[in-house]
């Protein structure tokens, strides 16, 4: 069964349709890249899944269960970074993570767990450094650390490579592979098809709130030829 199913989703803002009859699904254990230019609707889809904006019509299912009404229990199974993660700059990476974990009833992190999470996101050497000294890439890593302390089934990351230099992008995408190996299912958005296609098992390409290419049911995307088609093809959107 798919971990996430989106079926016929529609959303408008001020009578302007921004998501139109959108359907795709994400299988457990996969990394999926939701690719589209700015304004194509990526964040709106994520916010709808997270209950931050109300959908107009359509269905969203997590582990086969319909997300409906005011019940937000399903959010316990999702870790997320939407837009930029924020921190207490004068506190260290360890202190920030401790503080966040204390906000969750069911998260009881030992000192060792905390270090394990920081290790998982590659911040071993900066555990006790103040966040104010961190690069953007290190902050993204710490944001990921915060997103995974509840051991979510699904990680939703909105443009996690934004603002990073090429080395930072490479590091972050490698981190996605490590997180996948540790059992996470990841849905990340980006406008960088080529970079994301290096780590994603599947890609879904959005254009003006509609699906331009749906790789969610394809066994293995031929991403190289897809990329060439999009860049050079008649139906180029980039
Ligand atoms: P992306 O994440 O791909 O950049 P968004 O989901 O942020 O795209 O935006 C999709 C469209 O919806 C854009 O045209 C944007 O201007 C519009 N939009 C997003 N949020 C709002 C809002 N709160 N009110 C009105 N329009 C919005």
Oligomer: single chain
Helical segment count: 7
Beta-strand residue percentage? 25-35%
Q: Low-confidence spans: pLDDT under 50, at least 5 residues?
A: none
Q: Radius of gyration over alpha carbons?
A: 18 Å
What does this structure look like?
The protein has 238 residues and is α/β, with parallel strands linked by helices. It is 30% helix and 26% strand. The protein has seven helices and ten strands. It has a six-stranded mixed sheet. A four-stranded antiparallel sheet has the order 2-1-4-5, covered by helices on one side. Helix 4 (136-148) runs parallel beside helix 5 (166-181). The two termini are 33 Å apart. 34% of the residues are buried. The model has no long low-confidence stretch (mean pLDDT 88). Adenosine-5'-diphosphate (ADP) is lined by residues 13-14, 18, 36, 38-44.
SSE topology:
Layout: E1 2-13, E2 16-27, E3 31-35, H1 42-49, E4 57-62, E5 65-66, E6 78-81, H2 93-102, H3 111-120, H4 136-148, E7 154-157, H5 166-181, E8 185-190, H6 193-197, E9 202-207, E10 210-214, H7 223-232
Parallel strand pairs: 3-8, 3-9, 6-7, 7-8
Antiparallel strand pairs: 1-2, 1-4, 4-5, 9-10
Helix pairs in contact: 4-5
This protein binds adenosine-5'-diphosphate.
The site of adenosine-5'-diphosphate has 11 residues, from α1.
């Amino acid at each position: 069964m798919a971990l996430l199913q989106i079926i016929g989703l529609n959303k408008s803002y001020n009578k302007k349709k921004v998501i139109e009859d959108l359907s795709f699904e994400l299988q457990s254990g996969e990394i999926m890249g939701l690719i589209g230019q700015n304004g194509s609707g990526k964040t709106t889809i994520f916010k709808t899944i997270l209950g931050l904006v109300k959908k107009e019509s359509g269905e969203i299912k997590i582990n086969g269960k319909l997300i409906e009404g005011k019940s937000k229990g399903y959010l316990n199974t999702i870790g997320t970074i939407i837009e930029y993660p924020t921190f207490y700059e004068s506190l260290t990476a360890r202190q920030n993570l401790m503080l966040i974990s204390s906000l969750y009833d069911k998260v009881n992190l030992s000192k060792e767990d905390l270090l394990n999470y920081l290790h998982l996101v590659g911040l071993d050497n900066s555990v006790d450094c103040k966040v104010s000294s961190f690069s953007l890439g290190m902050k993204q890593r710490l944001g990921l650390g915060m997103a995974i302390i509840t051991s979510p089934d699904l990680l939703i990351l909105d443009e996690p490579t934004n603002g990073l230099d090429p080395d930072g992008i490479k590091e972050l995408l490698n981190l996605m592979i490590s997180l996948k190996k540790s059992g996470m299912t990841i849905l990340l958005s980006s406008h960088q098809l080529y970079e994301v296609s290096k780590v994603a098992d599947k890609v879904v390409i959005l254009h003006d709130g509609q699906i331009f290419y749906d790789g969610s049911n394809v066994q293995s995307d031929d991403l190289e030829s897809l990329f060439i088609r999009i860049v050079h093809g008649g139906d180029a959107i980039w």
